[in-house]
Design a protein that fits this description.
single chain, 191 residues, alpha+beta, Beta Polymerase, domain 2, 2 domains, 5-stranded mixed β-sheet, two-stranded antiparallel ribbon, 49% helix, 18% strand
Length: 191
């Protein structure tokens, strides 16, 4: 997979600041499956409140939209489901940042993240199991089939999965039936 240049715009500042992160969402699914068009990157990060200002300084308001510092700080201090984004004015490309807070799945995903060199840029990539769990959750919440297509692509590419961990997480979230349907469709060759 070739990493689009615009993704490095959002990842390189994290590396410079030593922020622990992982790329997930559609870009994560593409790394394990097939490329598709996307104009955003989802990034889970471990960020302390005192790290908010240095992070925002990496994205000057003349070049990027981002919420005010106090809004980002509030999102970082949430125990779970924190979120803020940064949008590049010139391109419209966006990074959706998800502070890990005390979310157990995010914390585990960060611990299991994988370094991947793509076109000279090293990124930290969410494990495929994490991507699958979140994609199934997003499908349940919003109904978009793109999440199922992303998972099907990952399975078709032969991604190696820790099935014990994955199925335990899916069972805990009530996603086992959806996972089995998707896996069975993949075996039968159905889309």
């Amino acid at each position: 997979m070739a990493l689009p240049d615009w993704i490095a715009t959002f990842v390189e500042p994290l590396d410079r600041l030593g922020i622990v992160y992982m790329i997930t969402g559609s870009v994560g699914a593409m790394a394990y499956g097939e490329p598709r068009m996307t104009t955003d990157v989802d990034i889970v990060l471990r960020l302390a409140p005192d790290g908010v200002r240095p992070l925002l300084d990496c994205f000057p308001e003349t070049e990027f939209y981002h919420p005010p510092e106090e809004v980002v700080r509030h999102e970082v201090e949430r125990a779970a489901r924190g979120h803020f984004n940064v949008i590049q004015h010139a391109t419209g490309m966006k990074a959706d940042f998800y502070p890990a807070g005390r979310d157990r799945l995010m914390t585990t995903g960060l611990e299991r993240s994988q370094r991947l060199d793509i076109g000279g840029t090293t990124i930290l990539l969410a494990p495929p199991e994490y991507v699958i769990v979140r994609k199934l959750e997003f499908h349940r919440e919003g109904g978009s089939d793109k999440h199922l297509r992303d998972i099907a692509s990952m399975l078709a590419s032969g991604s190696t999965l820790d099935l014990g961990w994955l199925e335990g997480e899916l069972d805990a979230r009530g996603l086992t039936a959806a996972w089995r349907r998707l896996r069975d469709e993949g075996r039968s060759g159905s889309p």
